[in-house]
Amino acid sequence: MSTILALLLFFTGELPNGDTLLVRIDENIFVRSRMVVASMRITGRRGMRTVRIRSYSRGDSAFVEYLAPERERGTKMLKLGRDLWIYTPESDRTIRISGHMLRQSVAGSDLSYEDMMEEPRLSQIYSAVTTGSDSIDSRPVWVLELNARKPDVAYPKRRIWVDRERLIVLKEERFSKSGKPLKRAEVLETKWIDSRWLATRVVFRDLLKTGAGTEFVIEEMHQDISIPPALFTKASLRR
Amino acid sequence: MTGFIIKGLVRDRSRSLFPFLTVAIGVALVVFLDAYLRGTEDSVFDTTARLVTGHLMVTTRAQAQEGEAGSLETALFGVKGLKAELKSRHPDIIWTERIRFSGILDVPDSLGVTRAQVPITGLAVDLTPGSVEHQLLQLEKALVRGRIPEESREILLSEELCQRLGISPGARLTLISMTAEGGMAIADFTLAGTVRFGVTALDRSMVIGKLEGVQEALGLEDGASEIVGFFTDGVYDDRRAGQIAREYNAGLSRIEDEFAPMMRSLREASDLGSLIDIVSGATGLITLIFIVAMAVVLWNAGLMGSLRRYGEIGIRLALGESKPALYLSLLAEAFFIGLVGSVAGTLVGLVPAYYLQKVGLNIGGMMKNTTVVISEVLRARIAPASFFVGFLPGLMATFLGRAISGLGIFRRSTARLAKEFSE
């Protein structure tokens, strides 16, 4: 169906409606629940380090556990709606991350807590306009300009490059209100998992930092699985 | 002749009092301003050196380039070896390592749940007994409650911040910061005591920790933000510091590594270079302004005096005293007035300067929102130069003033003297 729609639009020369396209992108990505084991290869000024995590997500709740390196092993994070808590075995305390702390980097990566806190469905926060077409690694893409509908979002503007056929974002740039580029994400690898195309290797760049960026690699993924509700409670952080 | 001139000045106060007062006030101002500027310069440099840069500062090149915005990502590693090398090269300089960090201090309630969070700036120093840091940071003097940290995971916090957070010594606090690798560091500390430095920028949010405890918490084993050096006499010598830093950096110029050490003087590390130049030039400028202003005032006073002494000068000329001799006698008068006025002015200027040196003037109330690392107490410093700084200008101003006004003598026509007297 997607292929037919893309071909039709290509031959008629018309650009698809941005908002409609954004809803379809969300539908492609969104699942009821998901378990992911991933590694973040963080290239900083002093070299590269790898952080491995296991995360469980359902709706707007997420539970993340650090598996490596040794120093950060056992650290857990819990996101419930717009609240975020972090637990470290060293201090045996559950600390709420709020305010400007949300802008801090997660484990020294190019991702911030704010990035992790984001509403997973872009169509619920942004209105989109398709501005053109392009190609990335010989894949034809639509270019969409996203503008936030609400004032309290981390990135008031975004530009995304969406694979016309697979409906996944292959490249993304995030901007401040003034239009200053803040973050860039580029998909290096996609895979057909559980009847849908998903990005499995992405490089994030915090454009305000020096360093070669953070490569996020999905090692294992299970979708629409059953996750015990007790996992998304503060008590689970100490278990 | 000298006795005659001095007697004339003492007995006829109208010819000496006004110039004397003018010189004395001017000299007093120069002496006081000189001591005040010297005290301010000392205060800024001393506070900056003790709390921020030392007289010399060794950091990585990356840290030097990024300035205060630098993070622990640009920290120095291999600090023990580097410090030993610096000690062997410059045994007459005290070297000590410090970690400068920032983050969030999380205050838990009785159940361990976050009660409050505040952003902090931190300084980790060597607090082992006998360490030079006790003297440099004057921690014992700054201590308000509790004690100096003894265990590695104990910290000092500003009294102001503690009162705001409602915490007392013994409280458990969690530091949330970043490691040198950029990872998140969360570590527990115990509040050992509270401090007040009298430096508003520090008293707002300063945390002081033990070096080894913060190194462990932030993953900085054998690492530090900087190694600071202090001249043993405690006085900053800009020329010497610049020379040492240049020689040190020249020895490392072939190494192409942004994490290689780099030495900077207080001038370079603190951006106080322009202030040093301004303060150095200020005394000279004040003296010059004083000489010009006083000379104009005394010139005017001399002209008025010449009018009043018109008859006296005429009689002296009529009696056969030559014009140059008369002119020289006026200059001699100026010399004595300048001499006495300068001595009196110096003494008067030294009194308030001495008060500011010993007692000081607290301006803490005016600095509530300042972020500059400067002491709240204004002080002056009387140096040997303070006894002479007003002297030459005092003499020169009276001399110049009288020299210009006295030129009128040479315009007097002796042929008209008899006519003038008959009138």
Structure summary:
The complex is a heterodimer of chains A (about 240) and B (about 425). Chain A has about 240 residues and is mainly β.
Q: End-to-end span of chain B in angstroms?
A: 31 Å
Give the spatial strand order of the biggest sheet of chain A.
Answer: 6-5-4-3-2-1-13-12-11-10-9-8-7
Q: How much helicity do the residues of chain B have?
A: 40-55%
**Using CB atoms under 8 Å apart, which protein chain pair has the greatest interface?**
A-B, 28 and 26 residues
- Supply the helix-strand structural class of chain A: mainly beta
Alpha plus pi helix count of chain A: 3
Write the layout of secondary structure elements.
The complex is a heterodimer of chains A (239) and B (423).
Chain A: H1 2-12, H2 18-29, E1 33-44, E2 47-58, E3 61-68, E4 76-80, E5 83-88, E6 93-97, H3 113-117, E7 126-136, E8 139-148, E9 157-163, E10 169-175, E11 181-193, E12 196-206, E13 213-223
Antiparallel strand pairs in A: 1-2, 1-13, 2-3, 3-4, 4-5, 5-6, 7-8, 8-9, 9-10, 10-11, 11-12, 12-13
Chain B: H1 2-11, H2 17-53, E1 56-60, H3 61-66, E2 76-77, H4 79-89, E3 93-108, E4 114-125, H5 132-137, H6 139-142, E5 143-146, E6 154-158, H7 159-165, E7 172-178, E8 184-195, H8 200-203, E9 206-210, H9 211-217, E10 223-224, E11 226-231, H10 238-251, E12 261-265, H11 266-270, H12 273-308, H13 310-318, H14 323-358, E13 361-362, E14 377-378, H15 391-405, H16 417-422
Helix pairs in contact in B: 1-14, 2-12, 2-14, 2-15, 12-13, 12-15, 14-15
How would you characterize the overall build of this protein?
The complex is a heterodimer of chains A (239) and B (423). By secondary structure, chain A is mainly β. Helix content of chain A is 12%, strand content 49%. Chain A has three helices and 13 strands, in the order ααββββββαβββββββ. In chain A, strands 6-5-4-3-2-1-13-12-11-10-9-8-7 form a 13-stranded antiparallel beta sheet, with helices on one face. Chain B is of the alpha+beta class and 423 residues long. Chain B has helices at residues 2-11, 17-53, 61-66, 79-89, 132-137, 139-142, 159-165, 200-203, 211-217, 238-251, 266-270, 273-308, 310-318, 323-358, 391-405, 417-422; strands at residues 56-60, 76-77, 93-108, 114-125, 143-146, 154-158, 172-178, 184-195, 206-210, 223-224, 226-231, 261-265, 361-362, 377-378. In chain B, strands 3-4-9-6-8-7 form a six-stranded mixed β-barrel. In chain B, a hairpin with a 5-residue loop joins β7 and β8. Chain A binds chain B through residues 42, 44-46, 49, 51, 71-72, 75, 86, 88, 90-96, 98-101, 104-109, and chain B through 62, 73-74, 104, 106, 108, 112-114, 117, 119, 174, 176, 178-184, 186-188, 219, 258-259.
